Batch of 2 targets.
Target 1
Amino acid sequence: MPSELSVLCLLLLHTGAHGFGILPGKALDHLEITENAILNSTVQVCRALAHAEGTDFTFPPQPFTAEAVAFACNAPKSSKSFRQAIISIIFQNVRVDLRHAFNASFHFDEEMFVQGRRIITEGLQAVKASNKQENFEAAREKLGEILHPLQDFYSHSNWVELGNKLPNPNLIRSDTSIGNIADVSRATCRSCDGDDCRNNILEDIIEQRVLTSGYFSVVPLVSTKPRGKCSHGGAIDQTSKIEPTGGINKDTFDSNHGHLHTEAARVAIAATSELLEDVRGAAGDRPFLQMMGITKGSSKTLCFVIDTTKSMSDDIEAVRTVTSSIINSEVGTDNEPSLYILVPFNDPEFGPLIKTTDSRVFMNAINSLSATGGEDEEELSLSGLQLALSGGSSNSEIFLFTDAPAKDRHLRSTVIALIERTQTVVNFMITDSTVTNRRRRSGNIQQQHREISASDAQLYRDLAQASGGQAIEVTKSELPVATSIITESSSADMVTLLQAARSPGKADNFSFIVDETVTKLTVYITGRSISFTLISPTGESQQSSDATGSLITASQSVGNFKTLQLKNQVGQWEMRMMSTNPYTLKVMGQSPIDFLFDFLEAAQGLITGFDVLDTRPKAGVNGSLLVSVTGSDSATLTEVALIESAGSGEIKGVVLPQGSGNFLVQFERIPSVAFVVRVKGQNVSSTPRASVVFQRQSPINFRASNVTITADSNSILVPGTPFSVPFSVMTSGTGANFTIRATNSQRFDSTSPTSLFLESGNSTNGTVTLSAPLNTPSGTDVTLTIEAEAPGGADTNYIVLRFSVVNTVTDFTHPVCELLSLRSNCSENCSLSTWALSARVSDGAEGTGVDRVSLKQGNGTMNTNLAADNENVTLVSYSASCCSPDMELQVVDRVGNVGSCFYTLRENPPAAISLSTKVTQSLFLCLSVMVLGLHMLTEGGVQ
Ligand SMILES: *[C@@H]1O[C@H](CO)[C@@H](O)[C@H](O)[C@H]1NC(C)=O
Ligand SMILES: *[C@@H]1O[C@H](CO)[C@@H](O)[C@H](O)[C@H]1NC(C)=O
Ligand SMILES: *[C@@H]1O[C@H](CO)[C@@H](O)[C@H](O)[C@H]1NC(C)=O
Ligand SMILES: *[C@@H]1O[C@H](CO)[C@@H](O)[C@H](O)[C@H]1NC(C)=O
Ligand SMILES: *[C@@H]1O[C@H](CO)[C@@H](O)[C@H](O)[C@H]1NC(C)=O
Ligand SMILES: [Ca+2]
Ligand SMILES: [Ca+2]
Ligand SMILES: [Ca+2]
């Protein structure tokens, strides 16, 4: 055992973070186990891809961090979305303890092996189906949920006690035996107390390799534990006080089987890696990385929502021009968008949402748009926007083009809910429409301008402002310029330094801090006749009317929209706005350092921990945020404040570092009015300039509410089967009849109450029923927003839920290969000779069919084609140099069952010991030491 290595890892950990204290209990360890496995798997995939693409790969230093892994994957701009993906997976994992605390199947308690495995395998099918439809957000959520029981198996069952050193591969398969499960009537444990609990599992159970797990209940006296069965153990488990006393869990070092905690955690990491490997096999390497938020290029999404009604032909032409210019200038550069989304809307139709990673597919979709129909003068703009917000990626930016008022104004609060929850910025490109009338009598052609009315435009302005975006109002002829200014400046590493709006307008002073990492400092202003004075950190000033000053290096103005490029000067700037017209002001720059955050809610009851909110936080009472600093492993937060959007009131939180760049921030009070989140921090840079002070702000404006909504349901919808989502609503304000709205992004048939009477402090229940049509493809994503609105709209809250549609899977076996021929004429000098094989791959008569065949190992050339006589058979031909004597095919069917076929020229194929496995082994050791510093459970020892 290379013990120096273990010592090194331990030291690194001690100097680093101390785990994720905000999520006490077993959450802590699920978090570490999950993060370690994700970092490991991602490194493996990036290494394999680099190898396949013939590029260099350098392992990041250990212990791995998301930053370092994104860098090693040659995707430094993805570090923020990678962090976000990891956090999202972990939150869903941790949530299982809060949502399903007493459901034994989710924790492999009470010998619920079959039920626990069903949760994993059905969830795994959903993950694979979602990935296939590129619904990565849904895939991540489900992935997090199923990793929880998978990891618990190793702590709660006797798998490790049976001497197993490797994961149980049958937990991620549905057609095999899980093992020899103890009969319900078979005794498995004897009573024990303290140290003698090491040997409380009956000898015959161990000798015959019988699987069992502990019973668990927090209710005293009433116990469902059958005679002779093991208990979970620990202070709050009441079953462990009943014969046979004691327990077998390995959640912490203090647990009854705490001496096996490290071993259990080690196997849980390996099991997590194995499941991730299966997901990777089904998805393919690039889509797997996309699920993890790692993409080539800039990792930004280019999302257009476009009105395609009759008067829009000029606008569509402008979008075409801008798109082709973005594609021509950015494809192949590291500023290339990694995802393209297009949502057309018309009246009465809207959609479909087109999502692609291929710029040509996107360009073709835009080229095929034409301006027709639309009937009356209002169009379904918010329906289109709702679809884009539901199907797009979080933390991104949307551009909506229209010249008409929204016909679907009733979606206003739904759209705001989705903006807040996905933290997406929406920019509106509003043009006046020109109606050409031919006046027959005079023969003149008259042009009539129809400007969108002030109140109609106000809805778009309000939505833009809520999201921190711009509502740009220009003529059709100005649109191309305005669009290119705003889209071409968008980049994944643009950070917001300041965002503010005043409506009605009033004179006000704003300040922002520019740090050394910021470049391309840009100010965006919307509003009419705006005047201001800009003051630099050195006290220099320049007025808006002054074209010769040195602070503004370039400026452009079109319609109500103005941008200024500022001289790069580090320090605190000031912007004195003089206007009394409404305006928005936004200051952005490029910098790797940014932040992510989620609102948290402390769990009530026996299980302690924090859950991420899918709703608005509670107004006027205390609340918490999880803030993650991205783009630097050495940055730390010094201040987090909630700033009132309309004024200057602010509430500062208490910042508690949690390690891995995460911070728990606790606020005494969440404002009752709209607010933004602002962070300040320090980055210790390696350059001589010792430390950088930075400030960032969320562009999105958030609101809190006196209404709470909770909902809990399965997250998988089966087409053709009605699906119920029970929810409850409560208000701490005055009782009244609340309006209830339930909208889903797929226009599935749905029923829900339209109003509920709420008594103050008492919760009221309701149910939404959704039905997906029978022909809905597996992996379809649906977002359901349930809203509750107080009379007159004085207060609103909502919950945003995501479901996956998954058809019942009956194909559980992977495709198989049959070798047709293998020819070799290898000579002494392997580089001068070649070998070749051909094989047929099929998925059997009952199977869903071969979806993908790829080369997993081997340096040769592979070709595949469908058999002429049978389209269910794929023929593979392969040829390689004799220096590359091994080859492995990965074969995947349409529901994601993954198989592999290995062929070799060697007579005694070696157990693959290569450099890579050695590296993996050392990592493994390191991780097993890492978990020593952590706990699977609190001392309370909740399952
Ligand atoms: C919540 O209730 C308090 C007191 O009743 C009130 O002052 C506040 O404005 C309400 N907040 C919201 C968001 O409605
Ligand atoms: C709430 O609505 C119900 C049924 O529509 C009505 O009978 C009741 O009077 C309403 N209550 C209030 C406080 O408005
Ligand atoms: C809440 O509901 C319970 C049971 O329905 C009832 O006894 C109680 O009076 C209600 N509380 C209020 C404040 O209306
Ligand atoms: C509301 O639903 C919850 C959870 O499903 C249930 O425990 C509670 O009894 C229900 N309340 C009423 C008043 O029906
Ligand atoms: C890392 O991932 C590889 C491949 O995905 C796997 O074989 C290995 O066991 C993993 N290592 C650990 C420590 O889980
Ligand atoms: Ca129109
Ligand atoms: Ca219309
Ligand atoms: Ca199959």
Note: Residues 811, 813-815, 843, 847-848, 893, 897 surround calcium ion (ligand 8) (CB under 6 Å).
Target 2
Amino acid sequence: MQKIKDQALGQDTHPELQQRLDQLLDMMNYESDKFLGYPCTRDFDYSPLFPFLFYPVNNVGDPYVESTFRLNTHDIECEVLDLFMDFTHATKEKHWGYITNGGTEGNMYGIYLAREILPQGMVYFSEDTHYSVSKILRLLHARNIMIKSLPNGEIDYQDLKETVRIHRDVPPIIFANIGTTMKGAVDNVLKIKEIMEEMAISSYYIHADAALSGMVLPFVDQPQPFDFSSGVDSISISGHKMIGSPIPCGVVLAKKSNVDRVARSVEYIGTLDTTLSGSRNAITPLFLWYAIKSQGRDGFRKIIQRCIDMADYAIEQFEAADINAWRNRNSLTVVFPRPSDYVLKKWQIAVHHEVAHIITMPHVEKRQIHSLIKDIKEFG
Ligand SMILES: *Cc1c(COP(=O)(O)O)cnc(C)c1O
């Protein structure tokens, strides 16, 4: 094992390559200490999995279907899916899923299913929806309408209702944000269902984009309704955000009855080609499996509680410095006014117009919050 690690650290490579790698590593070391603006944790250690990098592993195809490409981690992938089904109140009997390359692929899969099931459907999504969704809608040729957002980032239910009313002749496909990118707002799935019921609409589809919050809400005491127990039809969750991974990844889960309809329609190519990507990453399922199994449910409860406490601590510190900061319930996203470009760049902070945020992921420490606020006071 040590020999493998030594090799990985480059002892055997060419000196000029080594120099380049060392520089890159120095940069990563420096920048990862200023990593406050994106919802990806840097707290993980997958070194026990290193030997798997020596095999041409590939999870091509449906994780539940045996493949002749046997250098795969399908069994581990299925165990990870079981865990996520448990987190989101899905069952092995009624649900299906696979490990994706990230949140975007999971969202594309959800809308793809919805459009196959309701080909005339109209997709409704709020202004605060992730930027990738308009691209997905274009790719899928899905009819769509953008709905206004409330000031906290949730979808404007009144505007949704009025707009759906105008298009009552086509089945709605609701793209619900479970934790928006900028403000961490959660669209209320039960309220959305109420709107459908009030208008006597029986045929509709709800996809939940739970990129970050899908790994937060299962571990808090009073989660907003967001999962299969609240009536969503599919859900996409990122793996590299709260769990953490040096390779982007995610999980998508959907109702088997819907997936079967899509799967059958492609059976003529001789296999169940149920996934969007053909060749699929076999390493990321190992990362997710290792992280969840080693931390356990209780471990994640503690991690999430610590993140929420850190978000509240940050808000206190901002307020003590006369900077207005706030967060949505059960969110780790601390919203504050856009600071100077210098501060944005130094702390890798994403902005949308006048709104900026930090996200108190597991690696964020008090000293970094102090240092950020000091910078804002000094440089604006
Ligand atoms: C990060 C994010 C995505 C996209 O996920 P990727 O893993 O970057 O593809 C989608 N929606 C929301 C709300 C996100 O925060």
Note: Residues 5 and 47 are 9 Å apart (CA to CA).
